[in-house]
Amino acid sequence: MDGPLLEVRDLTVEAERGRRLLDGLSFEIEENEAVGLVGRSGAGKSTLVSLLAGRRSVGIVRTGGTIRLLGESLLDAPPAVRGRQGARLGVLWQDAESAFDPLHSIRSHIEEVRRVPGHGPSIAELLAKVGLEETAGRAYPHQLSGGMLQRAQLAVVLAGEPELIIADEPTTALDPPHTTAVLEAIRAVRSEERRAMLFISHDLELVRRMTSRILILARGRIVEEGPGERLFAQPETDETRALVAAGALARA
Ligand SMILES: Nc1ncnc2c1ncn2[C@@H]1O[C@H](COP(=O)(O)OP(=O)(O)OP(=O)(O)O)[C@@H](O)[C@H]1O
Ligand SMILES: [Mg+2]
After folding, report:
1. Looking at the domain assignment, is residue 10 inside a domain?
2. Phi and psi of 91, rounded to 5°?
3. pTM for the full model?
4. What is the best residue among 47, 51, 63, 91 to mutate for testing ligand 1's pocket, by most ligand atoms within 8 Å of CB?
5. What are 38-60's pLDDT values in tens digits?
6. How many helical (H) and strand (E) elements, i.e. helices and strands, does the chain have?
7. Ligand nearest to the CA of 37
8. What is the CATH number of the domain that holds 133?
9. Number of independent structural domains in the chain
10. Ligand 2 centre from 166 Cα, in Å?
11. Which of 24, 8, 18, 10 is nearest to 219 (CA)?
12. Could you tell me if 23 and 186 are in contact, meaning their C-beta atoms sit under 8 angstroms apart?
């Protein structure tokens, strides 16, 4: 295919009284590429994810720009095209609990996002990919720990065979052992399936370990981008320097 997998151009989003949450945001993701998006709290990361996923947020309007996935406008696509979680675009929400219906088992969530019913890897295979036992499929969301539920969410995303996986701070709500398990599951999926990924966090060091190219988001714009190693060794903007320093402080 010609052109990038995902192309975001001049995306501008405003809240009440014209306050810009995203201000002419532009970036691309190539097929198989793992890209990081890093910015401090309030930079606009989740606002971008909501737009990509087609979630309407009250009080927010898009005033300009385009989002294309495989050349097709995502903004004009009817919700059905995206599927329940967005089949072409699978989102790993920070708060895994909010992504599940408490009345349905993990297994039925997986069945629901399959593109073709009965097609693709079995439920046991999907659960194994994310490091869960087959019995987890019969569980209801409240029966799983936060880390298990986040991995179950990844299994549901994979069932939709998305072109792009978006992970919005997938481990910030988890304790260290669960964080490690979830990151390992995401890494394993990346290396086995070579799916493109947008990995979002305020933690530059974490994102450096998960991706090959990082976008720095500040006040709704990309202010710097490059491989994680370069951003750490030679940050060119105050924003990147601040994110490097914040990480060093947190780990001290
Ligand atoms: N529905 C809304 N109406 C008005 N303003 C909003 C709305 N949702 C978010 N905002 C504002 O948009 C800005 C960006 O918020 P966003 O949630 O995208 O940040 P973020 O980078 O994801 O931050 P965090 O790291 O805390 O998750 C913030 O100033 C926030 O207050
Ligand atoms: Mg956020």
Report:
1. no
2. -110, 130
3. 0.92
4. 47
5. 999 999 999 999 999 888 788 88
6. 9, 10
7. 1
8. 3.40.50.300
9. 1
10. 12
11. 24
12. no
